[in-house]
Structures are given as structure tokens and as C-alpha cells.
Write a structure and sequence with these properties.
alpha+beta; 2,3-Dihydroxybiphenyl 1,2-Dioxygenase, domain 1; eight-stranded mixed β-sheet; 5 helices; about 40% strand; globular
């Protein structure tokens, strides 16, 4: 069984247009199905895969959320044993609480926070429903539609590494030298490499997590991004391990990334 504390449980798209996001991502990520949630989900929608597994959800931003600064983006959920205690620990380590801990029906207890350098994410203590197993939102092996890599573009990489390893027990299996861009520090949970931490580019306005979703062909995905109103901002490019990546912006303005075969 995977250790809950420090695991990646869920990925959420914040958008201003659910119908537009549905049309875009279902064309770009084969197998994804964005569908409306049940009435008890209070307008929260879901991202399912062709095999029945779930990758995450879709939160359509209300006007008041936008007025308070919310913008289209992707956010990841990190599992914790105790959401309230984790928020307190995050604040003590230099992070901030953006949305106080609250219970979500059919899901668990969540809070939105930032790390010590301002990168936002959620923490979550799930309340599994009868018959449900562990989260399948992240998959280190190639599983179309799942998240395959979590990359932090940190405001201060050294501080961020200390922050996340201290709070979530992540290990540091190796580094990759990227020259002037510094070190690409791989991170692992329960012995599985789940992503990396690097220093953000100077032109980036703030630190952020960048989540890569598995797609069968990055070349085809790139073509679909452009054909359906998105923008390609990086790639396609080959990365170690014979995989390819592409980074883009969806029609509503959310930055996203894909990884897979050429």
C-alpha cells in the first residue's frame, strides 16, 4: 500500500469555461472524458480515463473567485494524514494557507496552500467511499491520461527541497546537471520517482508546479493543441528515458504539459 503522506492523489483544472475545456482536452489527450459531476458535487466536474480510472477534476471559476485573483491553471493534490496539522506545519515552514481546511462531500478534507516560495497546491486527507481503492491519478509507468511527472519550478530550489522533504518525507534519488539552469533534483515517494525540483526561469512571474500527463504521441498532441485553439510554448522535445514532452497553454489560459512517445 502506498504511504498517504506525500503521495500525489488528484489533479484539478481551474477554468472559466467547462465546455471549452472539455472540447480542448478530449481532443488533445486521447481517452480523457470530462463529465459533469453528480448533484452532490455542487458543480464540480471530473476527468475520467478510458479504462475507468480518474485523473482529477474540473473547477469552473465563479466570478467572485476571479475577482479575488483566481485564474485558469492546473493544481495538484498531495496526500496527508491530517490536513489541519499539515496546514499548520506548512505555515511554520514558511508556506501560506490560501483556502482554510474544509470537508468536501465524497472526497475528504482539503486545504489550498503555497510552499515557502509561493507555488500553490492542495493538501488532502481523503475519505474513501465504499468500494474505492487507492488513487490512480499518478502513474510513473506509461498509462495514458494519468499524470506521469510532477515538476516544481521553484522560487528558491534549495529552500523548496528542504520544505518538501521535511513535510512530506520525499527522498532525493539523484540530480541532473542542466548547466546554466542549475540542478534538476529528482524527487521520490515510497521509492518511486515522481518528479523533480528546479530553479524557475527568471522571467517566470511566480513559482509553480508543472504536471505532465501521459499521451501516446506528443507529435499528434502538438498538432491537436494548435488545431483546437491552444498554444505550444515549449517543444516537442526529447527528454531522458526516450520520452518526449510538450508544454502549452489551453484556450482558457491554463498552462499544461504532456509526456509520451514521439
Amino acid at each position: 500500500m502506498t504511504t498517504l503522506q506525500g503521495s500525489w492523489l488528484w489533479y484539478e483544472l481551474m477554468t472559466t469555461d467547462f465546455a471549452g475545456s472539455k472540447a480542448f482536452y478530449e481532443a488533445v489527450v486521447p481517452g480523457w472524458s470530462l463529465s459533469a459531476g453528480p448533484p452532490e458535487a455542487n458543480g464540480y466536474d471530473f476527468i475520467a480515463n478510458a479504462d475507468g480510472g480518474m485523473t482529477g477534476g474540473v473547477l469552473t471559476l465563479a466570478p467572485e473567485m476571479i475577482e479575488h485573483g483566481a485564474r485558469p491553471c492546473w493544481l495538484g493534490y498531495i496526500g496527508v494524514d491530517d490536513t489541519d496539522a499539515s496546514v499548520a506545519a506548512i505555515e511554520a515552514a514558511g508556506g501560506k494557507c490560501l483556502m482554510p481546511a474544509r470537508d468536501v462531500p465524497m472526497a475528504g478534507r482539503i486545504a489550498m496552500v503555497t510552499d515557502c516560495c509561493g507555488a500553490p497546491f492542495y493538501v488532502m486527507t481523503p475519505a474513501p467511499q465504499p468500494g474505492e481503492g487507492e488513487s490512480t491519478a499518478f502513474a510513473a509507468e506509461k498509462r495514458n491520461g494519468r499524470c506521469g511527472w510532477n515538476e516544481l519550478m521553484a522560487g528558491n530550489a534549495a529552500n523548496a527541497i528542504q520544505f518538501y522533504t521535511g513535510l512530506f518525507g520525499w527522498s532525493l534519488p539523484d540530480t541532473m546537471d542542466m548547466g546554466e539552469m542549475g540542478q534538476y533534483q529528482f524527487i521520490a515517494h515510497d521509492g518511486v520517482t515522481t518528479g523533480a525540483i528546479m530553479q524557475k526561469f527568471a522571467e517566470m512571474p511566480q513559482a509553480m508546479w508543472n504536471h505532465y500527463f501521459w499521451a501516446p504521441s506528443i507529435t499528434i498532441a502538438q498538432e491537436a493543441i494548435v488545431a483546437h485553439g491552444g498554444q505550444v510554448i515549449n517543444g516537442p522535445m526529447e527528454v531522458p528515458g526516450e520520452d518526449w514532452i510538450v508544454q502549452g497553454i489551453d484556450p482558457q489560459g491554463a498552462v499544461f504539459s504532456l509526456v509520451g512517445g514521439k
